[in-house]
Every structure is written in structure tokens, then in C-alpha cells.
Amino acid sequence: MTSRVNTSLSPNSVTSQNDPIAKIITAILKGGPPITIRRVEESGDVVFSVDLQPHGIKQSDLERSAFLRTVVTADFIGEFLLYKHLSEFLALLTTTHDYDRMVKEFQHTHFGMGRQGAVLVFRFHISKIYDVINSDLAKLISTVTE
């Protein structure tokens, strides 16, 4: 379904001239592409995607980008999209049937990212949504009690 994320990147494998990562990141940050939540698996993994073709990104751009095959890029883009579309993801916590097992027993570590044509497909654990909510709530409480 999706390709694996590469954790190694040699310094000579990417130059600004041959890697379209700036174009891809700009399309995501400025374009605000909508996400599609595909499913929540029994393990608690959430799979969602974002189609970049309407924002001028082609399959060949995604194929040429070595930076897209790094964990740091998957985490950056995945985290950005999670926060940008948090309200869409929040609904998943209310519809999770086995909340204690799915959300509290496991811990999100990294986003997985692959591609299907000009579509980026992400995977993360639902516990990340819970962590984001708790972090935001803790910040809110600390500002109220100061």
C-alpha cells in the first residue's frame, strides 16, 4: 500500500536543484490541502491521506524527493496536518469503541508516510491525539492559574 520511510540520507544525495521538497512543503503549508481519514485500525493506528495534485504536485515530484523518505519529514508534515485538522481527528476519540486499550495502552512514536501517486498517506497512533489534547489543556490551565 505505502512505501516505507527511509531513516538514512547521505549529504550528497540531495541538492536544492534536484529535490522538489520546498515545492511540496510550500504546497502543504500554504495550500491547506484537505485530508481524508481513511480508517482507524484495531491496533489504534489512524490512516489518513492528502492529495497534492490539485496543488501542483505531481507523482514525479514525490518520487524524486529524497527528503520525503526521512522520518523527520514524515513527523514534520504529519504533525502539521494533525494540528491543522485537529477537529477532524478529535471525532475519532469519541467514536473509538475500546478507548482504554486503543488510546491508553500504547504510545505514538513517529508518523509513517508513504505515497500513492500524488497522494501522501500517513499513519500514526491514536494516542497522539490524546497527547495533543492533554498538552493543550495543560497549557490552558497554567495560563488560567497564573
Would you write up a description of this structure?
This protein has one domain (21-145). Mean pLDDT is 83; it is low at 1-15. The chain has helices at 21-31, 59-64, 71-84, 86-95, 99-104, 127-145; strands spanning 35-40, 45-51, 112-116, 119-125. It contains six helices and four strands; from the N terminus they run H-E-E-H-H-H-H-E-E-H. 45% of the residues lie in helices and 17% in strands.
Summarize it:
With 146 residues, the chain is α+β, with helices and mostly antiparallel strands. Helices cover 45% and strands 17% of the residues.
Counted by DSSP, the helix tally is 6
Globular, elongated, flat, extended or rod-shaped: what is the shape?
globular
What is the count of distinct domains?
1
| Low-pLDDT segments, ≥5 res | 1-15
The topology string of helices and strands comes to HEEHHHHEEH
Oligomer: single chain
Query: Describe the biggest sheet?
Result: 4 strands, antiparallel
pLDDT averaged residue by residue: 83
